[in-house]
């Protein structure tokens, strides 16, 4: 699956910012590469004898299941590995069973693209022990570019609740919602990360209280019914607040649904004290995600406009554009075209 990374043409390179000067306050600031290495060298350099040892150790597939998998045609192997019940952690675990299965997983187009272009998303899923969805769901999410909540129409920062579509020159299609909410695999814009009630996860204590269940029962519940993340210690939010423990973060809408199904009060699911931009739990399960565009086939991480420096709701300095969107934005708003670099801010 060949795809190139989207880049601005040379004459625009200075106007596109890959990141803003301040840290994102999310998992982007955590050193996932070292905290969660995806070390394949033991398999890449392993011998047939080592494979025998690995087969004996395998608890995920079992010897019979493994042998069966290896004898099936590639297409069927792909179908099995993409089964909805094989979450990403299980897929990565299966991958470690033998060199042959590793080669099969590595040739899965969905896995290949994600592993090649955004391995930190896989590292984060491993580190946060997220088991609520499979690789297909993640891949399909990366093939979208719009915020799943507001369609890129919300202000990129918290103090302006006014939606963008009040503006006749609709710029939403140019934008990239660059945040991935890992608990339920949803693409979000930065505004919805800090403002959406549904993206303020609940602690295990809150869930236990809301569902009238012991903490042990809550933790034993199915990850698909109550999606959760096991937070990685580190510094989060723009204020770099420190999180020392590995607290659980539960998906609030899922708890709400469980309350509804049990006929319990939903009151305990309503967020009461929410510090928005300073809320660690709102940032600890969020990571930057590229857009896998199909036409043309590029991996687009998006850019901020270096010339937009104000808090203007339409052209806010935090607005992230797709590569193509920024080219149009620079041409139309700043009058920058090839051969004309007389910028208008
Ligand atoms: Zn949004
Ligand atoms: Zn601009």
Report on this structure:
This is F-box domain-containing protein. It comes from Sporothrix eucalyptigena. The chain is of the alpha+beta class and 345 residues long. It folds into three domains: 1-18 and 143-182 and 287-345, no CATH class; 31-132, no CATH class; 202-284, no CATH class. It has 16 helices and 13 strands. The chain has helices at 32-35, 41-44, 48-57, 63-71, 74-81, 88-95, 99-106, 109-117, 119-127, 135-142, 190-195, 204-211, 215-220, 252-261, 280-283, 323-334; strands spanning 4-5, 16-17, 179-181, 186-188, 228-230, 234-236, 241-243, 248-250, 286-288, 291-293, 298-300, 303-305, 320-321. A three-stranded mixed sheet has the order 1-11-10, with no helix packed on it. The longest helix has 12 residues, at 323-334. It is globular. Residues 48-60 have low confidence and may be disordered. Bound molecules: zinc ion (2 copies). The site of one zinc ion (ZN) has 9 residues, from helix 11.
């Amino acid at each position: 699956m060949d795809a190139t990374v989207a880049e601005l043409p040379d004459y625009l390179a200075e106007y596109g910012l890959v990141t803003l000067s301040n840290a994102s306050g999310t998992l982007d600031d955590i050193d996932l590469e070292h905290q969660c290495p995806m070390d394949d060298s033991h398999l890449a350099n392993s011998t047939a004898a080592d494979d025998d040892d690995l087969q004996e150790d395998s608890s995920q597939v079992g010897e019979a299941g493994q042998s069966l998998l290896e004898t099936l045609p590639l297409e069927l192997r792909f179908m099995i590995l993409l089964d909805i019940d094989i979450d990403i952690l299980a897929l990565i675990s299966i991958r470690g069973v033998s060199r042959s299965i590793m080669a099969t997983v590595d040739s899965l187009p969905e896995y290949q693209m994600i592993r090649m272009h955004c391995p930190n998303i896989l590292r984060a899923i491993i580190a946060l022990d997220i088991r609520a969805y499979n690789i297909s769901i993640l891949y399909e999410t990366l093939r979208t570019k719009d915020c799943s909540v507001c369609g890129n129409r919300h202000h990129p920062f918290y103090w302006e609740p006014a939606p963008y579509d009040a503006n006749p020159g609709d710029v939403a299609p140019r934008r990239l919602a660059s945040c991935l909410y890992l608990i339920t695999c949803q693409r979000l814009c930065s505004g919805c990360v800090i403002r959406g009630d549904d993206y303020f996860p609940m602690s295990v204590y809150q869930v236990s209280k809301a569902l009238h269940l012991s903490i042990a029962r809550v933790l034993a519940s199915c990850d698909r019914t109550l999606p959760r993340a096991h937070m990685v210690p580190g510094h989060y939010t723009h204020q770099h607040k420190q999180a020392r423990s590995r607290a659980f973060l539960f998906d609030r809408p899922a708890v709400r649904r469980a309350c509804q199904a049990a006929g319990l009060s939903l009151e305990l699911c309503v967020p009461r004290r929410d510090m928005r931009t300073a809320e660690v739990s709102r940032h600890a399960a969020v990571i930057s995600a590229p857009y896998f565009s199909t036409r043309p086939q590029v991996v687009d991480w998006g850019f901020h406009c270096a010339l937009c420096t104000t808090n203007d709701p339409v052209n806010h300095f935090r607005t992230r554009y797709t590569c193509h969107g920024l080219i149009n934005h620079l041409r139309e708003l700043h009058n920058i075209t090839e051969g004309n670099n007389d910028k208008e801010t």
